[in-house]
Design a protein that fits this description.
Blueprint lengths: L1 E6 L3 E8 L2 E9 L8 H18 L4 E6 L1 H5 L1 H11 L2 E4 L2 H12 L8 E5 L4 E5 L2 E5 L3 H7 L10 H11 L6 E4 L1 H11 L4 H4 L3 E2 L1 H11 L4 H6 L11 H11 L5 E4 L3 H10 L13
Parallel strand pairs: 1-4, 4-5, 6-9, 9-11
Antiparallel strand pairs: 1-2, 2-3, 6-7, 7-8, 10-11
């Protein structure tokens, strides 16, 4: 039995994995991208990892950092040292392909995987990838997406559209896609939301509804995790841009699934850099 921690800009996700079975998967909102002070960022991250450890006490743990930690590696290594756990910061390529492999482990499908975080949007097919600086926190810093109204919403959609490469059969990974699906069904449940099909109409209706609400009203709905209300409208803008090509299939998985399997099979770190193909 092992625990894999996916440490991202918006959220930390804990996955407990045992012989191919998921025993626990839980999301902890952190919003590190918007915290500029290093000491404050460490305190917030430390508190989240402490919560995680209280639930996975005694389980061998590996932590993997993404975009925010690529920019602030000293923060990641300070966390590893403080909690005495193993792990590494994933490169853009590692993150992209490890995420893709959780959807298409045999690399035989004609899909495009979109992994949306706070710092970046990874767009991945089986033979190429690109990392775009259009994460939800990044978009919040460029455009006025404050609620109610989010007056730059359409500008944000256009901005994302101009950066997207050609793609087909989109699969959306990341808290924003899951949150939009949860708002559609009125319930946050990772297991039931995996595989959910978001239509362009779904995304439009949810976006319009959210744009009439303030942050506290979204929190009071008690559907998406607290903290996610700060990035959900930016996520809607990205989803709107992607949905110009049709429906988006939602996946609640991520690179943590691929790494959990690799670690359990003894393929990491002995096999070298994960994600290299």
């Amino acid at each position: 039995m092992i625990a894999v921690l996916d440490l991202g800009s918006n959220s930390f996700i804990a996955l407990v994995y045992d012989r191919g079975k998921i025993l626990l998967e839980k999301v902890y909102e952190v919003g590190l991208k918007s915290i500029k002070d290093d000491e404050q960022a460490f305190c917030v991250a430390k508190q989240s990892v402490e919560k995680i450890q209280s639930e996975i006490n005694g389980i061998e743990t590996y932590a993997f950092g993404t975009a925010v930690f690529r920019q602030r590696p000293e923060l990641f290594h300070r966390l590893l040292k403080h909690f005495e756990i193993k792990g590494k910061i994933l490169s853009e390529k590692e993150e992209a392909y490890l995420t893709y492999l959780c959807i298409d482990p045999k690399r035989s499908m004609n899909v495009t995987v979109f992994d949306l975080g706070g710092g970046s949007l990874e767009v991945v097919k089986k033979d190429w990838f690109v990392s775009l600086e259009t994460g939800t926190h990044v978009l919040n810093s460029i455009f006025d997406l404050s609620l109610p109204e989010a007056k730059d919403f359409n500008k944000t959609v256009d901005y994302v559209l101009k950066q997207l490469p050609g793609f087909e059969n989109p699969v959306g990974i990341g808290g924003s896609f899951v949150a939009i699906a949860a708002l559609k069904v009125q319930k946050w449940d990772l297991k039931s939301l995996d595989g959910f099909i978001l239509t362009p109409e779904d995304i439009y209706k949810i976006s319009e509804k959210l744009r009439k609400m303030n942050l506290q009203q979204i929190v009071d709905m008690k559907i998406i995790p607290p903290g996610r209300e700060k990035t959900i409208i930016a996520g809607c803008a990205v989803a709107t841009a992607i949905a110009t090509k049709g429906n988006i299939k939602v996946s609640t998985k991520g690179f943590r699934y691929t790494l959990a399997r690799m670690i359990e099979e003894g393929k990491w770190p002995a096999s070298g850099v994960p994600g290299e193909i």
